[in-house]
Amino acid sequence: MTGAPIQFLFESQTYNLDYTNTNLLGGKHVLTYGVNARKNEFDLSIAPLGDSREEYGIFIQNEMLLSDGVRWVIGVRGDDIDPIGTVVSPRTSLLVKVAPEHTLRFSYNRAFRAPSMVQNYLGATILTRQLVDPAPSPLLAPFAFQFNSDAVGNINLVEEQLDAFEIGWVGQVGGTTLTASVYRNETKDSVDFFTRSAYPMNSSDPSITSQPLLITPLTDATGTVVICTLGTELRNCDPDGPGPLPDLYTVTSSSLPFDFSYRNIGEIVDQGVELGINSRINDQWSWFLNYSWQDDPDVTGISQDTLPSGAVVDAINQPPNNRANGGFAFDSESWYFNGNVNYQDEAFWTDVLDTRFWGPTDSFTTVNASVGVRFGDTTTLSVSAYNLFDEDVQQHVFGDLISRRVVGQLLFRF
After folding, report:
1. Are residues 201 and 133 in contact, defined by beta-carbon separation less than 8 angstroms?
2. Closest CA to 107 of 66, 49, 164
3. CA-CA distance, 210 to 229, in Å (whole number)?
4. What local confidence, expressed as pLDDT, does residue 273 receive?
5. pTM score, whole prediction
6. Is 253 helix (H, G, I), strand (E, B) or coil?
7. Rounded to 5°, angle at Cα 266 from 265 and 270
């Protein structure tokens, strides 16, 4: 442990073989089938035990024209992937044209996501910093100390499984296309990065032994007090100084992770509504509006965690409840102009380390615009502005703050 950044060195080679064929049967059945094989070879510095993965798949799909207004698609896929084994993914959709310009869609599909090589074979040590304010002794001013935590993979993970149900409608009214859908997604065995044990080491795994915490020199009004550790206990290294100070884990507002790992957790149900309008006024003008609402996730089999603030939350991401965007476009032979407004509700993120790093992102609204001039058929000069009013935009609690960006472009066609 030196405190240097984790070196992420990555090299991979992929060998892939696919075969797909489609046959028309009896004029009313479109049969598509195929197989694939893939071998991935890895050299990951943070997952040294994972060096290769083999994947084999087979699928078949039948698209049936039941009548002039009814089409039914049904299919299934089977995959065999290291190290999880065999997974079967069925899917089906029924399209019913209830009127010449109106179609209903009913669909179901099952999908899966295999654990990544990092999730299976991660092996790294993370150095983090913890602030202690107030300090545990009158000798000390408020201070921060560093400590190390192991992060290890889990070879026993199973695949994440998603069952998706959707009912949708598409309608055409003059030059306007209307869409609406309701959906329900049931996710089982999500892969969660979690604190497996905390200081003082309380893991039931006998192979895990306590690590010393790494402490930086601490300074008070009279100078530097050098602090040593014994297990998780703070001590003054000066033999003539005061005796042991309180344990580190007792003077912080949250637990100190001893090690992290991955696990499969519970079931998450997401459901919501999506609405859309796209309209063309004439050959030059068009506009659109979209809105989506997603309910708070319904969670079972997943424990709650306590934040440093004392708030108790489900240990899953809470996506925005509301999203909306709208815009317009003008396009002529010589020039074009378009603009759009995008809104996203607040969200809460838990997919980073432990509760000390979880947190919300605020709602935001962005305005974007673009204008371009064409010089004949070969040259276009354009200027595009993103986040025109320079609002603070952060789409993840660990994401960058996205500010105004203006891009000019000169495009030549040959």
Report:
1. no
2. 164
3. 12
4. 98
5. 0.78
6. coil
7. 115
